[in-house]
Structures are given as structure tokens and as C-alpha cells.
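Quick one:
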Amino acid sequence: MKNVSGEITPLNFAHIGSIVSSTSNGDYGTCNDEENGRKRRDSHDSLSNHKGTIGMLGSVSIAVNSLTGPAMLNLPSVFQRSGLIPTTLTIAFLCILSTLCSLHMANTISKVPGNSHFHHEIEYSEAFRYFWGRRAFVVTQISFFCCITCLNIASIVDTAQVVDQILSRFRGGAVAFEWRQGGWEIIRWAAHNCSGERIQNGKCIPFEADHNNDTWLLTTGYLLSALMFLPMSLKNLKENTLFQIVGLVVLMVISGQFVYSFFVHGIDFSNVSLWGTDWADMFGVVLFNFAVVIAVPAWLYERRPDVSVVSAINNSSLIGFILYMLVGGLGALTMPDVTDNMLQSMMSGVFGKLTEVCSMVFAFFIIGLGIPLFSVLTRLNLTGSGLCNQFTANILAVYFPWGTAWLLYTGGKTTALLGWGGIFFSSIIIFIAPLALALHVVKQSDIQGSVAVYGRYFQDHGKQKSVLIVLLFASVISIILAAIGEVK
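Output:
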């Protein structure tokens, strides 16, 4: 049944049940009718035969790696600008809010008829089409794409900058193609060009000292990063799970080494004030750290049935919060005038060779491995609803970020991207949309869903609606504060 505008009537479960099998594999909006017919004929068998293979370790790895993306590298500088107390409270609040948003998103997806055990492939935007119609589908598709593309571009830039830092240690230094008004020219940069003062302050950053926001650089570090991570971005979520597990192990080991190095180097409380002086991009940057909900729909379909949704999400959020406080907070207390990208300060040599090497490894295994994960999630959201075929989705999810990220290499442009991107896109996808959809479904239906968001509490529908309204209000206030701070 459709309404007069031609949209799917929200919460018409009889209609939804009839189209689940034909849309879960991405048959909406495709141009190949013969292929769509074949997919519809085979859909029942493919769904019944599908078995998720991602266990608890892989599930936590995907979620934690979603939480420890490029914005994590900006936390020490946020602590120094915004103060210990405001930043800590903001991280704790958004961590709880993000966890509840992820659980609500999972519970809403479980309410699709026949999907209580997540046997249907319901991607992020497809859930909105099922329950709220095509307009919501379009809005979330655009917001989802912009949100993850911002994260992906920031990851690409951060990884490329660290690779250039590595290359600058070798003879001949790092090489880049620089665009000026007169055209392209080849330039070089070597680590030994930095003065002792710049090294001590963590300001020994490739190509940064002599270039401004009007300079465009295409560096060898950028090209090498593309050579390594672009092919991985073309793989599926299952194929990337092993890489994510390796990334989690490396993350835990290196984070421990960082914490040890911070204590050895010396904690200086004068580096961070209690209340800070500049809160402009605090909410925007911190918002970007809690993007775990973007991975939830795809993960639900690929997880093993014995993996608890609640445990996986709660444990991942707790691990993320602890890492933020240890690495972000202690890093701010240790490094005076830390750079926006924490790894650049730690690779300056002032923390010793071991920390310098660990920073290089961190960039490759943590930030770098986030690039294919973000690309996979973007592609799945595009193809899962049939909006794009595989080829077009790869252009948008993989080649577009790699083709444009180099334009933001210099001048702290990624910090601005995280600030405004966090407000306009992450706030919608990570907080507003999942809660609004959950509230809409709770108002329209008595179905409980298979995910116990609050455990034994708030089982009554009236209480659930009240809590969701409070969470939505808190989300909106946070986003308004972030916008006000960014304008200032």
C-alpha cells in the first residue's frame, strides 16, 4: 500500500512484510529488471541460508575501531583548549548517549517483520524507509554519506601526514607536489630542518611551517597510503573483520605504551586548565568520536547469532571511553601545545624512539584501517537499498574520498572538517535520527523488539516514549551548543 505521494506508508507492516525479502538484498531503485527478478526469486533461499560469522571479538573490534577514528587524535588538543572538566563531562555524556542511540537503532531494526534475529540485511537508511517513508530514506542517505565521508577524509589526511613524517627521516626527506598560482612544483622536507624548539614543542610537522591554507600539496605519503588502503576499501565487511581484530590488538598494546611513555616523560598539570578557555569545536570534535552507530546495521546482519548485541555495544563503548581518557587526557597533560594530530607531536622524537615507532604503527593499524571500514559501511548503505550498483557505490565510497582528501592536507583543515562535519552530519546520523526513528516506532506500534535497551527498566511504552523524548532533547541541546561554539 502507498500513500497519495507515492511513498511507502510508514508502519504498514503487512506491506513491509511483503517487500522484506525483495529489498533486503538491495533491489529498490535498480535499473536492471531482469536482475531484480532473479534476486527476488532467490531472496528467500539466500536469507534463510545466511549465517553471520562475526564473533564477539570481531564485533568489539569493529565497534571500537569505529570509536577510535581520526577524531581521537584531536582529543589532547581539545583537552588543552576546552579544559579537563568540560571535556571529560562531554565525553562521558556523549558516550552514554551514543550507546543508547546504537542500542535503539538495533532494537528498531529488530522490529522489522521477520527480523527479530537480524536475518534480513537492513542497512541504516533502509530502516528509515521501512518505518518512515521515502523522504526519511533520502535525508538519511545524504547525511550518512556526508558523515562517513568526513570521517574517511580525516582518516586519510591523518594517515598521509604520519607517513610523510616517516619518510622525512630518510635521506632526501619527504617529497610533495605543491600547487601555487604559477603551477605545480616539486618540494622536499626533511625532519632535520626542524629547530630544537619546534621538536621540543611537537611542532615538527612535514610541510607545515612554510605553507598556508591556500597551498595544495599532493605528497608521497598520501600516494603510499592510497596504495596500501584503497584496495582494502574494495573488500566486504567479512573480509575486513580480520584486519579490524588485528587493529584492536595493536590499539590496546600501543595505547598501553603511550600511557607508560606519558608517565615517564612527566605529567604537567599546568598544560591543561580545569575549565579551559576555548570551547568552540569541543562538542563537534567529540561528537565525531562516537560514530559506532554507523556500523551497527551492517554488523547486525553479519554477526554470529550467539553474540549479544547489548554486551558487544556496551563493552565497546566502555573500552572507547577508557581509551579517550587515558590517551587523550594524559596526552594533553604531557605535551605542551600539542598539535591537532597528536601523532605528529609524538613522532617528533621528544618521547624517544620507541614511542616514535609506536606512533607510526598506530597510524597504520588504527587510523589507516578505519579507512576501509568507513568505505565498506558507506558502500553497504548505498547498495543495500539498491540506490547504487557496486561500481557507482565504489566511486562514491572509495574513490571520491581518496580523490579529494589531499586538498585538506595543510592548514588544520581537518579540524574544521571535524568541527562542522560533527555538527551537521554526525549529529543527525549518530544521535538525532536513531532516537527520532525509535520514538516514531514506539508511538505507532506496541512491538517490543529483541534488544533490551534498558535491561529490565522502562519496559512500559509510556516510559520508553518519555525517555526517548528526554534523550532527543539532550541531543538537540548538545548540537546547539556545538553550533554556537563553532560560530564563535
